[in-house]
# Entry
Amino acid sequence: KQEVTQIPAALSVPEGENLVLNCSFTDSAIYNLQWFRQDPGKGLTSLLLIQSSQREQTSGRLNASLDKSSGRSTLYIAASQPGDSATYLCAVSTGDDKIIFGKGTRLHILP
Amino acid sequence: NAGVTQTPKFQVLKTGQSMTLQCAQDMNHEYMSWYRQDPGMGLRLIHYSVGAGITDQGEVPNGYNVSRSTTEDFPLRLLSAAPSQTSVYFCASSTPADGGFGYTFGSGTRLTVV
# Structure
């Protein structure tokens, strides 16, 4: 059974720092991996989608990497800003029309 | 381009009442799914559909029914509401056609059962 783990569960960093959020999954036979952002009381916003054949994806200050063989993905946020404060969710698709979510990392950027 | 639209945004039900959570998407996505989000439990799959007329159970299907009569709509029905169904419900859609099963989520329905 595929399981997705995100560490740490919560993180506080000063504004301007670069940071890395981690995601691990137990079954390397994934179709893709997607990072989402969720603001309090809101829905999920897709940030980056990495196909199983890709190693990384970039969007602005965000960079996501994927290492299928080790079952790991990282989300790198450069030059963090208070507006980056949110919960970040990692989800893997196993190609059977479902995605499995981690429980998320709550990020707080200190002004 | 509305994406995935969920209604209502908030709902309070009494135990034993029934109701339908609506979900509609305008992206012609084949796949649609319902999740519930609870503190400490993350997002869990309730039901999903790979196309009109086809539905299947997810991780936590008990107490919920779904149908998919059109590509656009995927309503979730609570048969007899229970306090344990107090949660935030999200609908999502996806297609392999845009480069591979990227999911788009609705803004959620916050349900309280008293």
Notes: The mean pLDDT of chain B is 92.
